[in-house]
Structure to design on (91 residues):
């Protein structure tokens, strides 16, 4: 399995919009083949930090997801409004 933690740092003025796009991305991604879990979290201590946590069956499913229209549309939208940092783990 593959786990991704995507940290999103966003200014207050763009926070609601980024969170809305992230929730839309989550809803679409949960339907992708091989998606075990996919969710967005809000930091309890920092309003400027969100995190998308995703788990995939394998690298192949993740690769297909990264080419899906919802991914190729919504991730650039988030990137245009916020900083993103990715951590990836295999287990």
């Amino acid at each position: 399995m593959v786990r991704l933690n995507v940290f999103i740092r966003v200014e207050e003025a763009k926070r609601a919009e980024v969170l809305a796009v992230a929730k839309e991305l989550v809803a679409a991604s949960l339907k992708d083949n091989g998606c075990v879990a996919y969710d967005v979290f809000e930091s309890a201590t920092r309003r400027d930090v969100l995190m998308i946590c995703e788990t995939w069956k394998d690298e192949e499913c993740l690769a297909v997801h990264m080419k899906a229209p919802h991914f190729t549309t919504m991730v650039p939208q988030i990137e245009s409004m916020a900083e993103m940092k990715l951590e990836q783990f295999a287990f």
